[in-house]
Amino acid sequence: QVQLVESGGGLVQAGGSLRLSCAASGRIFGSYVMGWFRQAPGKEREFVAAISWSGPNTYYADSVKGRFIISRDNAKNTVYLQMNSLKPEDTAVYYCAARKMGLITTPSAYDYWGQGTQVTVSS
Predict the structure, then answer these.
(1) Burial level of 13, CB count in 10 A (0-12/13-18/19+)?
(2) Which region, left, alpha or beta, applies to residue 26 given φ > 0 means left and ψ of -120 to 50 means alpha?
(3) What is the DSSP letter of 99?
(4) Do the Cβ atoms of 50 and 105 come closer than 8 Å?
(5) For residue 23, which of 67, 76, 78, 97 sits 20 to 30 Å off, Cα-Cα?
(6) Dihedrals phi, psi of 15, to nearest 5 degrees
(7) Are 24 and 74 in contact (CB under 8 A)?
């Protein structure tokens, strides 16, 4: 079983930055993939970024490429999402998720989810 807890959300002005954290506990193995997703009101949950728990592989949605950076600290069992040049359309609840293998962008493919953290970007 894997538990995920997100933190770091908040209110920021357009152009600003935030860093989200996802603390993982439980049986995380090297083959796990960690993903960030977001869901705005009235919209489907969408993929943002993913990183393999071991190894350098990362993947980003086109909408955040060049602005967001996903990283991990294995010693702290924590995954981060550094969000720069934020836009009002980035406003959403951001979720951390984990799956056992493979960089997949489909939410239903992920086995474990955090409770989410709200990010609001004002114009």
Answers:
(1) exposed
(2) left
(3) E
(4) yes
(5) 67
(6) 90, -10
(7) no
